[in-house]
Amino acid sequence: MDRTTRPVCVALLVCVAVLPAVAAQTPEATGLAIAREADRRHSGYGDLTARLTMILRNRQGQTSERQMRVRTLEVEGDGTRSLCIFDSPMDVKGTILLTHSRKSAEDGQWLFLPALKRVKRIAAQNKSGSFMGSEFSYEDIAVEALEKYSYKWLRDESHDGHDCFVIERTPIAGSHSGYTRQVVWIDKAEYRMVKVDYYDRKRSLSKTLTFKSWTRHRDRFWRAGQMDMVNHQTGKSSRLIWSGFEFGTGLTEADFNRNVLTRIR
Questions:
Q1: Pick from 21, 169, 202, 259: most CB atoms within 10 A?
Q2: Which pLDDT value is given to residue 77?
Q3: Beta strand 96-101 with 80-88: parallel, antiparallel or unpaired?
Q4: Protein fold of 39-263
């Protein structure tokens, strides 16, 4: 064998060796691998705070606005904790949603209602209900744990200028989800979620969430500055505008205890 044919033969041997592995990669295994990589890139930030403007739009195009503060904490081996604290308008000022998103157990959510001066637990079967009149449900507000879904790669396609993987995630049995499945577009460059189609319990397309205005923090963590949820069945929509991200603020699990909700200002 001369030197000119040797590289070609080596390349052919490599291709032959790789082909069985590619053929054995099922859509389910590919979907899970994509979801795992997206989860890996999103995780590891520790804790963060941010400000949030929520804009509600009805079918006639009329809008109303709400201002919130958000605090989030990663808990090693047990998901995340988060707080949404409403600052305006006056009729919702002081309302707080506490969410414990868990990897292997049912999520917990509690709503503090200042007018009643009491904390109300959100029942698992009610988490598909509207969050404070928006098109986001309580389920949507919780950080999705990788372990709560099964996955399947559907195809690759472009969306809004991003070359994307398109995967399907299906809530595991007993999760009390309001959705039968979700179709998710994840960009190949940074593994950012750029679009999600939600299918309701009747398996009809219910809502679509899109992510825009991305910024990178600490040279690693990408966060969307704008999230738009459109309800195809009601004609309503809700927009979340994020700002003021701060990482590593020193939050601890004690800051996300339901017993402190009445003392948060």
A1: 169
A2: 85
A3: antiparallel
A4: outer membrane lipoprotein receptor (LolB), chain A (2.50.20)
